[in-house]
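Provenance

Sequences were taken from public entries as deposited. Structures were produced by running a predictor on each sequence independently, with no templates supplied. The record for sphingosine N-acyltransferase from Lynx canadensis is shown for reference.
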Amino acid sequence: MATAAAGALGLLWSWLWSERFWLPQNVSWADLEGPGDGYGYPRARHILSAFPVAAGIFSVRLLFERFIAKPCALRVGIQDSGPYQAQPNAILEKVFVSITKYPDEKRLEGLSKQLDWDVRKIQCWFRHRRNQDKPPTLTKFCESMWRFTFYLCIFCYGIRFLWSSPWFWDIRQCWHSYPYQPLTSGLYYYYIMELAFYWSLMFSQFIDIKRKDFLIMFMHHLATIGLITFSYINNMVRVGTLVMCLHDVSDFLLEAAKLANYAKYQRLCDTLFVIFSAVFVVTRLGIYPFWILNTTFFESWEMIGPYPSWWLFNGLLLILQVLHVIWSYLIVRIAFKALIRGKVTYPGRIRPRLCTLHSFLTSFLFSMPGGSWTVSSLACVEGRSQ
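Predicted structure for sphingosine N-acyltransferase:
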């Protein structure tokens, strides 16, 4: 019995790590066991180091939010208090929990007669009760400040690392001598930090305030972790660093806009969101397809040829591009609606209040599943919830 189980486990293991799937022709795992330089070649076991790093990142986050983000939030005028508590009422609470959080006119009239309350008073009760379930602005500010800090730091590190990397200036270097491309310490730290950060987000979802986007963000983090892990195992880390850095450049801008919005710096929020939108469209619809996809599809085909994991990797990157198109369309459409509906006249000019687009974004962005390394922040404007 034990022998049969061991044999079945061995077959499963050999199927999961089939060289025919993961590696180009005439390349074996044994070929990648050589010393190389620095950290040798990427190996699946390296991924395990992301877990203690993720625990460390989560611990740093707790300290950061308590001793840095919270004082900053209080300094800009965000109150350390929850939303207004609705007056306790068993009948309305039962309707809210069991039937609807948004009663229609007919139900409001019925509740008004039953309780001898004015309809407007009942509407106010439901509004206050809904607000009770929303995370306080202080909590959202601290979370966004943590994300902003991490995204900005990892982006700066990525730019600094890539600036001295030959494939940043000549992207065909991503495929020279592939897969015999040694893993340097800087590349290893970059990948493990990104992977550990998303594992920390995965863990923290279960202890943070539960939000309506929980399942969507869980699936997004899972997909992100899968993409980073996959590209590391088959040593497509050079092009992977370019993809991660390309996505990080817009993420910290989005978190900065959210911070300005929570602090009620509307003009700053408007400006940051416009910058974010422009950077998002340029990077996701311009640089990504004409620089990244061009090299992963055409230049890599020419230099190393296709094989099973090559097809899967490019398929995932192509799906990511489809999501980029959809998200860009939503951003442009929502910004256009904000321009049409949210114009406020000031002396001598008209200034569009683009932060009104947050209410529009909530209804659209969460209909789309997450699917990129770092696009989770996009899905947070502001489904978390404004």
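The longest helix spans residues 266-303.
Confidence is low (pLDDT under 50) at residues 343-386.
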